[in-house]
């Protein structure tokens, strides 16, 4: 397991208004994010648009109860610090603290914005079930939410679709195509999570959405969670897989139920964070020393640029970009049968840095990082690309690069946190120029042919004489 916080995994560097919905760990996530924000914010607000149980509010530093005017509640906030839980009054019939109404939530959100205070809102109910499908009136996500975190537990995998495992099983059946009583699989959960009336329901336009798959304590659950995550990358900004970590430091009463302090105060440990990672194939140079366009050289039945793009697609990178320059039309034609994005770099003569910056500008905010491949490095393999992608999912390291023996080589994967520094590169330099600021995490690789590149026609002749596939 990686040593990551929720905030780093979800890239929550600034105070945000976050609504948490779904089932299988909402309150745990609420408090875990709250404690993490509390480390560098004097005040963090927790609240609900639905309800919270009696034990659930006791874990806060202070519990504020709104029972009068909005102005009085806001005045109370100005004089409090710490992890503050704000609810309406106690409902003796449901035995729960009631959520805040819409007008008060809007006022609290305005207060949070003015004072740079993180505001975390539990915006759904699941009756302690690990999985759910929303009813017509659910979830209760405020329209001003900037981030929505959808939680789904994995313990129902392999279990029958019944009320014991799923809140609102009939609704889950309608969205998943599964009949009541039949066995729940990862595919069924994916159908519900990606459905506009399921996991996507009620997410405000413009809000970032993340999925948290919890209860991945076993290797089998983790393998299923990874398959689910990869199929949902176009639905959510990122998918985090987590399991319960160290036991809670808070005392817990014996015989407590799943929604009690014995469970929700035990933190999650992120196992992996899957997100869209781009692959950028740098193919803009004139190959003047070589004498002919290197991207168009043929090896094993296809051009080098086509091979690089195909392998990146097969490895799971998205989007795959080809940066063109000197032979732009010819290179674009060579990959025209592949679902890649061609980026023209009119400044290619000013050096490799211009191609890197052209790719990052074209990416915008859609990717969590980018792998940069040189088109003249033929022994890059599918297995290597997959290993780089997997290492990033388990570490979110700023830079990951292969190491063959004691030799550093390409391709290099850069997390998006490095993009501002890459955008400051000038001239004929590549990403290695920022290695001093972000020490790379090295991926040890055993194929001694990996560093081989094509600088001269003699190198190409050697390549054609070599046997075997890259490792």
Describe this structure in words.
- With 471 residues, the protein is α/β, with parallel strands linked by helices.
- The protein folds into two domains: 6-274, Rossmann fold; 278-465, Spore Coat Polysaccharide Biosynthesis Protein SpsA, Chain A (Alpha-Beta Complex), CATH 3.90.550.10.
- Helices cover 29% and strands 23% of the residues.
- The protein has 15 helices and 24 strands.
- It has helices spanning 6-9, 26-38, 54-58, 70-78, 102-115, 169-176, 186-194, 219-231, 261-264, 304-315, 328-334, 352-363, 382-395, 419-422, 457-465; strands spanning 17-22, 43-48, 51-53, 62-65, 82-87, 90-91, 96-98, 119-122, 131-132, 147-153, 166-167, 208-214, 238-244, 268-274, 278-283, 298-299, 302-303, 320-324, 341-344, 369-374, 399-404, 407-408, 412-415, 441-444.
- The strands form five sheets. A nine-stranded mixed sheet has the order 4-5-2-8-1-10-12-13-14, with helices on both faces. Strands 15, 18, 19, 20, 21, 22, 23 and 24 form an eight-stranded mixed sheet that branches.
- Helix 7 runs parallel beside helix 8 and helix 10 packs across helix 13 (382-395).
- The radius of gyration is 25 Å and the shape is elongated.
- The protein starts with 5 loop residues before the first helix and ends in a 6-residue tail after the last helix.
Could you write a compact summary of the structure shown?
The chain has 471 residues and is of the alpha/beta class.
């Amino acid at each position: 397991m990686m040593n990551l916080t929720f905030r780093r995994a979800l890239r929550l560097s600034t105070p945000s208004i976050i609504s948490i919905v779904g089932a299988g760990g909402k309150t745990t996530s609420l408090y875990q994010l709250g404690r993490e924000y509390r480390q560098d914010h004097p005040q963090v607000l927790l609240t609900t648009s639905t309800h919270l149980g009696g034990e659930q509010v006791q874990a806060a530093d202070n519990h504020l109860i709104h029972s009068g005017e909005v102005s009085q509640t806001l005045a109370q906030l100005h004089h409090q610090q710490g992890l503050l839980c704000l609810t309406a009054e106690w409902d003796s019939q449901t035995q729960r603290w009631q959520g805040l109404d819409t007008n008060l939530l809007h006022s609290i959100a305005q207060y949070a914005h003015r004072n740079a205070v993180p505001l975390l809102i539990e915006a759904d109910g699941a009756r302690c079930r690990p999985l759910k499908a929303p009813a017509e009136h659910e979830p209760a996500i405020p329209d001003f939410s900037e981030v929505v975190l959808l939680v789904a537990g994995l313990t129902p995998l392999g279990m029958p679709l019944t009320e014991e495992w799923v809140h609102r099983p009939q609704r889950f059946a309608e969205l998943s195509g599964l009949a009541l009583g039949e066995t729940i699989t990862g595919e069924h959960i994916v159908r519900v999570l990606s459905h506009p009336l399921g996991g996507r329901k009620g997410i405000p336009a413009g809000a970032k959405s993340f999925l948290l798959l919890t209860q991945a304590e076993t290797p089998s659950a983790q393998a299923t969670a990874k398959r689910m995550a990869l199929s949902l990358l176009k639905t959510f900004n990122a998918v985090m897989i987590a399991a319960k970590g160290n036991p809670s430091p808070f005392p817990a009463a014996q015989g407590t139920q799943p929604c009690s302090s014995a469970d929700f105060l035990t933190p999650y440990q992120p196992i992996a964070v899957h997100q869209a990672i781009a692959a950028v194939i740098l193919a803009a140079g004139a190959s003047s020393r070589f004498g002919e366009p290197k991207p168009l050289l043929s090896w094993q039945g296809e051009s080098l640029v086509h091979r690089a793009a195909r392998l990146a697609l097969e490895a799971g990178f998205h989007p795959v970009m080809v940066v063109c320059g000197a032979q732009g039309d010819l290179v674009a034609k060579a990959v025209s049968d592949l679902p890649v994005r061609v980026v023209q770099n009119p400044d290619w003569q000013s050096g490799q840095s211009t191609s890197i910056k052209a790719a990052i500008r074209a990416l915008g905010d859609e990717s969590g990082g980018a792998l940069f491949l040189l088109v003249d490095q033929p022994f890059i393999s599918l297995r290597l690309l997959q290993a780089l992608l997997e290492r990033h999912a388990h570490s979110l390291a700023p830079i990951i690069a292969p190491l063959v023996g004691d030799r550093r080589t390409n391709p290099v994967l850069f997390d998006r946190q490095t993009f501002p520094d890459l955008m400051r590169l000038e001239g004929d330099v590549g990403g290695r120029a920022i290695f001093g600021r972000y020490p790379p995490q090295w991926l040890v690789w055993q194929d001694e042919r990996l560093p081989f590149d094509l600088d001269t026609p003699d190198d190409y002749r050697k390549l054609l004489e070599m046997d075997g596939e890259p490792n």
